[in-house]
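Hey, can you fold this one?
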Amino acid sequence: VMLHSTLDLCLLLVTVSPNLAIAIKKEKRPPQTLSRGWGDDITWVQTYEEGLFHAQKSNKPLMVIHHLEDCQYCQALKKVFAQDEEIQELAQNNFIMLNLMHETTDKNLSPDGQYVPRIMFVDPSLTVRADITGRYSNRLYTYEPQDLPVCNDHN
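Sure. Predicted structure:
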């Protein structure tokens, strides 16, 4: 009898497992605190140093998003960034991602001042790409929600 019920349990698990896996997969992952609302399905690094390390190791550029909670422009940009599936996929697959609410000691990340929102790119050779800019001459590295498709073109 014991063997029989064990066999039944195994069969039950085999039948239930695929459905269980699908259910788990479809369930949204719990919000990741490092994302700060920029996209919970993106793997975010915690520090600039960690970002540089992973950029070099994986040969992917590092995208650094400077933002603040109480900045309405940051919030608007974040909303579009987080909701655009193409951007989310691009960010997850092609970049090492970091979002910061404080400045780093690397002055290369603020070539024209410390303002938010500001998006900087650092290539795998650890060079800050000051040549990748938005469309504002007074804030070279700021982007508005409607500018995000432009970010896709840079890739």
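The chain is about 40% helix and 10% strand. Let me know if you want another pass with a different chain boundary.
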